[in-house]
Amino acid sequence: MNFPENLKYTKDHEWVLIEGNTATVGITDFAQSELGDIVYVEVETVDETLDKEEVFGTVEAVKTVSDLFLPLSGTIESFNEELDQNPELVNSDPYGAGWMIKMSIDNLDEIEELLDVDAYKALVGA
After folding, report:
1. Region of 18 on the Ramachandran plot (φ > 0 left; ψ -120 to 50 alpha; else beta)
2. Phi then psi for 112, rounded to 5 degrees?
3. C-alpha to C-alpha distance for 99 and 95, rounded to whole angstroms
4. Is 115 within a domain?
5. What CATH number did the domain enclosing 20 receive?
Protein backbone atom coordinates (compact mmCIF):
# COMPACT_ATOMS: atom_id res chain seq x y z
CA MET A 1 0.00 0.00 0.00
CA ASN A 2 1.35 3.38 -1.03
CA PHE A 3 0.74 6.56 1.04
CA PRO A 4 2.61 9.57 -0.41
CA GLU A 5 3.48 12.01 2.36
CA ASN A 6 3.16 15.14 0.18
CA LEU A 7 -0.59 14.63 -0.26
CA LYS A 8 -3.66 15.36 1.83
CA TYR A 9 -6.44 12.78 2.19
CA THR A 10 -10.18 12.55 2.87
CA LYS A 11 -12.25 10.10 4.90
CA ASP A 12 -13.80 9.15 1.53
CA HIS A 13 -10.40 7.79 0.34
CA GLU A 14 -9.49 10.56 -2.03
CA TRP A 15 -6.07 12.16 -2.26
CA VAL A 16 -5.45 15.85 -2.85
CA LEU A 17 -2.31 17.51 -4.20
CA ILE A 18 -2.35 21.22 -3.32
CA GLU A 19 -0.42 23.60 -5.60
CA GLY A 20 -1.25 27.19 -4.70
CA ASN A 21 -5.03 27.51 -5.09
CA THR A 22 -5.26 24.51 -7.44
CA ALA A 23 -5.89 20.95 -6.30
CA THR A 24 -5.44 17.69 -8.21
CA VAL A 25 -7.73 14.93 -6.93
CA GLY A 26 -7.87 11.17 -7.32
CA ILE A 27 -8.67 8.08 -5.29
CA THR A 28 -6.11 6.46 -3.03
CA ASP A 29 -4.23 3.22 -3.54
CA PHE A 30 -6.34 1.78 -0.70
CA ALA A 31 -9.58 2.79 -2.45
CA GLN A 32 -8.62 1.35 -5.83
CA SER A 33 -7.56 -1.94 -4.20
CA GLU A 34 -10.90 -2.17 -2.36
CA LEU A 35 -12.88 -1.39 -5.53
CA GLY A 36 -11.03 -3.85 -7.75
CA ASP A 37 -10.69 -3.48 -11.52
CA ILE A 38 -11.93 -0.04 -12.52
CA VAL A 39 -13.81 -0.03 -15.81
CA TYR A 40 -15.19 3.52 -16.05
CA VAL A 41 -14.71 6.97 -14.51
CA GLU A 42 -17.43 9.55 -15.08
CA VAL A 43 -17.08 13.24 -14.31
CA GLU A 44 -19.73 15.52 -15.83
CA THR A 45 -19.10 18.49 -13.53
CA VAL A 46 -16.27 20.25 -15.42
CA ASP A 47 -16.73 24.04 -15.20
CA GLU A 48 -19.17 23.65 -12.29
CA THR A 49 -18.62 25.16 -8.85
CA LEU A 50 -19.44 22.71 -6.08
CA ASP A 51 -19.32 22.69 -2.30
CA LYS A 52 -17.01 20.47 -0.30
CA GLU A 53 -18.31 16.87 -0.10
CA GLU A 54 -20.71 17.26 -3.04
CA VAL A 55 -20.61 14.42 -5.57
CA PHE A 56 -18.46 15.39 -8.57
CA GLY A 57 -18.49 12.04 -10.39
CA THR A 58 -18.52 8.28 -10.11
CA VAL A 59 -16.04 5.46 -10.47
CA GLU A 60 -17.30 2.13 -11.73
CA ALA A 61 -15.54 -1.13 -10.92
CA VAL A 62 -16.49 -4.64 -11.98
CA LYS A 63 -18.45 -5.17 -8.75
CA THR A 64 -19.70 -1.72 -7.75
CA VAL A 65 -20.21 1.97 -8.54
CA SER A 66 -18.96 4.56 -6.04
CA ASP A 67 -19.59 8.28 -5.83
CA LEU A 68 -16.64 10.67 -5.84
CA PHE A 69 -16.89 13.48 -3.28
CA LEU A 70 -15.23 16.86 -3.74
CA PRO A 71 -12.61 17.30 -0.99
CA LEU A 72 -12.73 21.12 -1.08
CA SER A 73 -15.18 23.76 -2.27
CA GLY A 74 -14.31 25.08 -5.70
CA THR A 75 -14.64 24.83 -9.47
CA ILE A 76 -13.82 21.71 -11.46
CA GLU A 77 -11.32 22.96 -14.05
CA SER A 78 -10.51 19.75 -15.92
CA PHE A 79 -11.02 16.00 -16.08
CA ASN A 80 -8.25 13.54 -16.92
CA GLU A 81 -9.58 12.53 -20.34
CA GLU A 82 -6.99 9.75 -20.54
CA LEU A 83 -9.31 7.86 -18.19
CA ASP A 84 -12.00 7.71 -20.91
CA GLN A 85 -9.90 5.20 -22.85
CA ASN A 86 -7.79 3.82 -19.98
CA PRO A 87 -9.76 3.78 -16.69
CA GLU A 88 -7.40 1.07 -15.42
CA LEU A 89 -4.80 3.83 -14.88
CA VAL A 90 -6.61 4.45 -11.59
CA ASN A 91 -5.59 0.92 -10.55
CA SER A 92 -2.06 0.91 -11.95
CA ASP A 93 -1.01 4.49 -11.06
CA PRO A 94 -3.55 6.06 -8.66
CA TYR A 95 -1.26 8.94 -7.62
CA GLY A 96 0.12 9.68 -11.09
CA ALA A 97 -1.49 8.99 -14.46
CA GLY A 98 -4.71 7.92 -12.69
CA TRP A 99 -5.54 11.40 -11.34
CA MET A 100 -9.18 12.39 -11.92
CA ILE A 101 -9.74 16.15 -11.73
CA LYS A 102 -8.00 19.47 -11.31
CA MET A 103 -9.94 22.16 -9.48
CA SER A 104 -9.57 25.70 -8.24
CA ILE A 105 -9.99 26.04 -4.48
CA ASP A 106 -12.52 28.60 -3.25
CA ASN A 107 -11.73 28.40 0.47
CA LEU A 108 -8.08 27.69 1.34
CA ASP A 109 -9.04 27.32 5.03
CA GLU A 110 -10.73 24.00 4.16
CA ILE A 111 -7.30 22.48 3.45
CA GLU A 112 -6.74 22.35 7.22
CA GLU A 113 -9.71 19.97 7.52
CA LEU A 114 -8.10 17.35 5.25
CA LEU A 115 -6.22 14.39 6.74
CA ASP A 116 -2.43 14.20 6.71
CA VAL A 117 -0.73 10.92 5.80
CA ASP A 118 -0.58 9.66 9.41
CA ALA A 119 -4.27 10.36 10.03
CA TYR A 120 -5.21 8.62 6.77
CA LYS A 121 -3.07 5.58 7.62
CA ALA A 122 -4.83 5.39 10.99
CA LEU A 123 -8.22 5.59 9.22
CA VAL A 124 -7.46 2.59 7.00
CA GLY A 125 -5.58 0.65 9.67
CA ALA A 126 -2.20 0.77 7.94
Report:
1. beta
2. -65, -20
3. 6
4. no
5. 2.40.50.100
Across 95-120, b (16+ Cβ under 10 Å) vs e yields: beebbbbbbebeeeebeeebbebeeb
95 close to 26: Cβ distance less than 8 angstroms: yes
120 found inside a domain: no
Note the pTM of the prediction, 2 decimals. 0.96
Domain assignment of residue 67, given as a range: 8-106
Contact 75, 62 (CB under 8 A): no
CB-based burial label for 89 (10 Å; 0-12, 13-18, 19+): buried
Say how many domains are in the chain. Answer: 1
Per-residue model confidence as pLDDT tens digits over 57-106: 999 999 899 999 999 999 999 999 999 999 999 999 999 999 999 999 99
